[in-house]
Amino acid sequence: MKERLYEILNEEKAHEIIPFLKQLSHEERKALIPTIKKLDREISKIIMTKNSYHTAGSADQHSIIDIASFVCMDQKHYGKDYWSFFRDKEQTTKILEWGCPPWFSDFINDSVEAEFTAFNYQDILGWAEKGYVQPRPELLGYHLSLQPHELEKNPDTLETHFWYMCEFPSKSLPFQREWFPVVQKLIGENKIERRRFLKECLLAANRNFNKNVTGWFMDAFNALKPSDEELILLQDELMAGLASVQSKAVNTVLAHLKKIVADPEFRTGEFSHFLPNLLSSEVKTVVAASLTVTERIFQKRKKDTENLGLALSAAFVSKDESIQTKAAKIILKYVPVSEEIKEALSHYADNILANVRPGLVQYIENRPLELDAVDPEKLELISEESRIQKPESFEDLMFFLPQAIENPGTWHYDMALDGLIRFANEADEGSVKLFEPVFQKACKTVAKWEVHHFNVLLCNLIINYGLLLLDKFPAQLKNLEKIYKRTCEDEATREVYSSYHKKLGPLKDIYAGGLAMEPFKRIAVYVFEKITSGDQKPLLSTLTHEPCWVSPEALVERLEIYQNTDSEPKNLDMQLALQRCSLEKTSHALKLVEEKLKGEYKDLLLFFFNKNSAPKGKFEHPSWWMTAGITCSPGKVFEEFKDFGYDDIPEEFLSGIYNWKTIDSKKNSYYPVELNIDVPKYHLKKRQHPLFLEYFIAEQKHFAEIPSFMWSFPNTLGNVFAKIIKYCLFYSGLAEVYERNLVLSTAQALHQMKKPLDAMGLLFLGTIFLDGDKVIRGTAAEIWLEHVSHKAMDNAELGRVIGLHEKLEWAPIKRFTDILQHQMLNVSKDHNLALEQLLAHILLQMETPVTNLKKILDIYHEVLALNQSEADKNLKEKLNTWKENSSLKKICNLLLKK
Fold it and tell me: Which positions fall inside the DUF7825 domain (predicted)?
């Protein structure tokens, strides 16, 4: 049976595959499945030629396997291939006529989730007519929405399926351009009921469609220009549309409601029920349109407006002055003073802006806003709460390793290495059974095309350890060989691509990400050597506290183990431990050094833990001393190190301080304003004692793991920030997902570190405050809020950075002012004082007025009012100049009066 299938495939006898399959029993077809899968892998291998590539199999061979797969497999084994088998429509029809599998109808109905299919709406109608498929409404709606020209070809299409399409359109594609003219024509011919279609358009607002599809229905509704009579009849659907999560739908509904507010049948009470949520929207156009409709209702109607007036108070959730001003004007004009409106406004009193508050004096108590001062706590790098819990047994380690694979480049990686050193040789016949799923996960992860570099190392370490265990426990781990063989076969199919780097094999031979990853690769090789030799001495660099810290006491204790066993730690491991060591509290560690260490270990740590001390002793390991000096006193030159031979490393890399400037690229319209940072080129030098740092600075490419390197240089982050700024933040309009993800990961890592920011940290933070991504800007605000709470933010320098960027309009100021209003204003008294300083130093960098400068001045005025302060005296001259600008005159005069 297998031999016959091989013969048909090898001789490309496509006409013989169906007769062959017909004569097989159900059990025989099922038995062929493994062979079919194996042959499919073989013919799907990629063959590279000089100018192109192709699969190993011919078109006939692929057809043979497609047919065999469809006939022999069940739905689970066949998968979700809606393309290969269905390309030849004539052949598909013949096979379905001979024997349609029982799972075919469910399989086709599930195609609404597929990205591509080789069949269409007409094919489905044909299969339904023959009884092969019992199509669900979702299936018919989805496929019809992709083919507008099919509307008039079948009587059921217009009568039933068109309405399915309104309810279940394609999820993956927006409506095509020709759709609406066809619908409009059929409405005109009374073939599609106009009122029902208008209703369906409005119902689309809450059907969880994608933005394009919802937008199409809203555009269709607008284009049909519903009359006031139709709008009154559709009030149920219009009001329901106000609850949509899509702003276009809400704005469309509001625009039409505005037309009918004067009608006696308009439901003012129902609208007032939705108004608080509308006014709380983050979308300014929705809030403004809601206020416009509300004002129109007050103008046109004299009854049933009590609840409307109370609902208006929700507008003061917004910190936008134009919104608050408009809401206040409506209240003053149409809402009489009462206890109810006073009570409603009292809930928002603390949020009402200083410029708006005096106008509402009849409605609210005109008292200064009293915010609590923050009781500052010192930012602690390490604490008992952040101590990492290590696996305590082989069984613990087996449950932990999958977590480490799921969290590459974090402290989980270090705990995995540490656990393998401690427990690798504790496996027994009972516990070793827990290893198979870990091995399988490692194989499955490393077999992907794109693998995080830290996972390449960890997964290979697990796999190589598994092969050692297989020799010891062949009966318990018999499946490992099969899993490993299949993984090797999968990788072999990709090795034909010149761009593919081998990810499976002995650790020393695999590619794990270039120069920057080389130190980690060497440490991983060292860990495997320790596993094979049974050496359980710990790595010095294993973290003790999240997210990236080694406590100074732990470093002393680990070095004592090496000292007592008369062994020497690996150079790169020692440097990584020094780089990660927390230096905020070292007095207790200094006592331990005096008590427990001797020789170079003692001299090195006495220097490292005491920032004001000079290096003394024998410098047997120059790289250790140099790393200690860079980490504890970045930028400081130690005369004692002058003969170490590291003077060829540019100063920026040793200090972490780089020159930068925001420039106007007048000749480059694509990047009109750029952030330039000078990062010197550096090529790795061959030297006896290389620095861990050198591998990172010599890496010329930018790569996805850059944020993970923050955990390796937590005391000196300047070099990491410089790379991110150079590659991902040079232009504020950069919209690529890859760069955005790198910046977000870096910002989130910085937020986790709880560390005061140096000059490069402030440059990074000030720049991401202006990033195009809202989540990134929000993360920047969270970092600022936390650092201000701990009295650890240099607002003057941060303001200088933002001001120098915006002086040339590097990014739209609105990005920053939105974050200011929604996340940073009125958090506490201390935050308002910090904000005053921040805004003053931003404005001090400005020269001629820039777009939206008024917005910053408005917020600055609000902050001064809250703090009962005056404008910075150094700003007075600028304000006198700026008030010559008509749009700035009023706010500048207000600030000059302060």
Answer: 657-897
Amino acid at 573: D
Q: Is there a contact between 828 and 849 (Cβ–Cβ < 8 Å)?
A: no
- Please state, in angstroms and rounded to a whole number, the distance separating the CA atoms of residues 518 and 572: 10
Looking at the DSSP bridge assignments, the partners of residue 441 are: none
Question: Residue 188 CB: number of other CB atoms within 10 A?
Answer: 10
Task: With a cut of 50, list the residues of the chain below it in pLDDT.
Answer: none
Rounded to 5 degrees, φ, ψ at 812 are -60, 130
331 within 8 A of 315, measured Cβ to Cβ: no
What are the tens digits of pLDDT across the range 507-548?
999 988 889 999 999 999 999 999 999 999 999 999 999 999
Look at residues 463, 448, 520, 464 and name the one whose alpha carbon lies nearest to residue 512.
Answer: 520
For the chain, the C-alpha Rg in angstroms (whole number) is 35
**pTM for the complete prediction?**
0.78
CA distance 265 to 228: 11
- Cis preceding-peptide flag for 569 (omega within 30 of 0): no
Please say whether the beta carbons of 682 and 698 come within 8 A.
yes
| Helices 774-789 + 759-768 axis angle, to 10 | 140
Instruction: Indicate the SS3 state at residue 352.
Output: coil
Cα–Cα distance measured from residue 183 to residue 158, given in angstroms and rounded to the nearest whole number: 10
- Determine the distance from the C-alpha atom of residue 748 to the mean position of all C-alpha atoms in its chain, rounded to a whole number: 10
Give the bridge partners for 664, in sequence order: 673
Q: What is the 3-state secondary structure (H, E, C) of 728-747?
A: HCCCCCCCCHHHHHHHHHHH
CB of 496 closer than 8 Å to CB of 46: yes
The residue behind tokens 């297989």 is 470
Residue ranges of the alpha helices (H) in 335-428? 339-346, 394-406, 411-423
Place of tokens 């440490």: 523
- Tens of pLDDT, residue by residue over 133-158, are 999 999 999 999 888 888 888 889 99
